[in-house]
Amino acid sequence: MKYLDEYRDPAAARRLVEAIRGLVTRPWNLMEVCGGQTHAIVRFGIDELLPEGVRLIHGPGCPVCVTPIELIDKAVAIAARPGVIFCSFGDMLRVPGSASDLFRVRSEGGDVRVVYSPLDAVRIAAENPGRQVVFFAVGFETTAPANALSVLEARRLGLANYSVLVSHVLVPPALEAVLGSPDRIVDGLLAAGHVCAVMGTEAYHPLAARHRVPIVVTAFEPLDLLQGIHMALRQLEEGRAEVENQYDRVVRPGGNPAARAVMDEVFRVADRAWRGIGVIPMSGLVLREAFAAFDAERVFEVEGVGGPESPHCRSGLVLQGLLKPQACPAFGTLCTPDNPLGATMVSGEGACAAYYRYRRHGLA
Amino acid sequence: MCLGIPGRVVDVEDGPLRLGHVAFGDVVKEVTLAFVPDAAPGDYVVVHAGSGIEVIDEEKARRVLETLRILEEP
Ligand code: SF4
């Protein structure tokens, strides 16, 4: 497919690996921020091609994984109500809450539907005026514009039966937390290309300067990742700490103004809890007061709903790059994709799921 | 969910939502092109959760590929 297969050329990949080998004089730790990048890295074995001492660390960039358990519990509570049609991206269905998950709600008779787009949920609301339709609005800056647009569209259509359960998180505050941590082991960052396509690259300049860290906006195909790694390592070897853009075929410095405008109209920035990590200041989006009527948490009064995490799950450490998934005692035994203890084992972008899928062989 | 994939714009229907069809290989999906007001049939766009978030700059894409291919030559 255009702009996918072209970026998987094995011969070019080999030469890039050689170029990286010729560049590196000492060990470095790079963090790939996005879970989509983690999956590509593990799937194509990119980490195993790198020179000795160059390590890739998985970042917190999987929105399914960082959705707080309290919100999963609220989703479960809302979806179980009679008369509700609960719409979600498929990834969220198996994410364990403290007592249940959306998949189980569905098997017990709840009307839980997987949609491809939040606008599909708006359409379902228009077609079912007698029922409440709730969309689980999760994701980073990439999905926030589409989710915001669904609220504007519901308002335009005059729908009183559409609401969103919002769990949006923002990437730069999470990186600030990773880079500012006293346990920091990260020397350079591969920033998530599609988040930057929406938000631009400006937010990264102060981060790079303050923490003396190279940040390379990187796409998701093998050649993209290898080129991003090469750019970050070259900066490190030369003692530079700048923001560079490997993905300039898509990412513009100012991002996408139309998408940002819709996001800003509907959402405002607020403190947000990240699953396994805790509250990060000003790291989430919530609906503005003008859109309170579309806020599922208010419509359904789920204040106070939410239970504890599984005591076995170490996903907080996995998400901060402090533990490899196979090092979790539950990995592949107590915790599998069919019976996950943590969200990182469920999501199409979760680090535990990536290792389970591509690296299980050879593990006891 | 964050892994948007590139697809080719097949048609565009202007309206409040600026909907269009985008082809991903053989699969064609309806998406909103509200955030990519300049996207025209034939353009490649990156699509996330049913909405186009950016048009791919073909010139830059080609340039990167050429640079990467030069690497192939010994
Ligand atoms: S393997 Fe399972 S229990 Fe362990 S950290 Fe990953 S999701 Fe949590």
UniProtKB/TrEMBL annotation, chain A:
InterPro entries registered for this protein in UniProt: Hyd_form_HypD, HypD_1, HypD_2_sf
GO molecular function annotations of the record: 4 iron, 4 sulfur cluster binding; carbon monoxide binding; iron ion binding
Coiled-coil ranges per UniProt: none
Keyword Metal-binding appears in the UniProt entry: yes
This protein's UniProt keywords: Iron, Metal-binding
Pfam family membership, one: HypD
Biological processes annotated in GO: protein maturation
Keyword Metal-binding belongs to the record: yes
Family: Belongs to the HypD family.
Entries under PANTHER family matching the protein: HYDROGENASE MATURATION FACTOR HYPD, HYDROGENASE PROTEIN ASSEMBLY PROTEIN HYPD
Protein name: Hydrogenase formation protein HypD
Biological source species: Mesoterricola sediminis
TrEMBL record, chain B:
Annotated protein name in UniProt: Hydrogenase assembly protein HypC
GO molecular-function terms, A-Z: carbon dioxide binding; iron ion binding
Family: Belongs to the HupF/HypC family.
An individual GO BP term: protein maturation
Database matches in Pfam families: HupF_HypC
PANTHER family tied to this protein: HYDROGENASE MATURATION FACTOR HYBG (PTHR35177:SF2)
Source species: Mesoterricola sediminis
Transmembrane stretches, start-end: none
Lineage of origin: Bacteria, Pseudomonadati, Acidobacteriota, Holophagae, Holophagales
Superkingdom: Bacteria
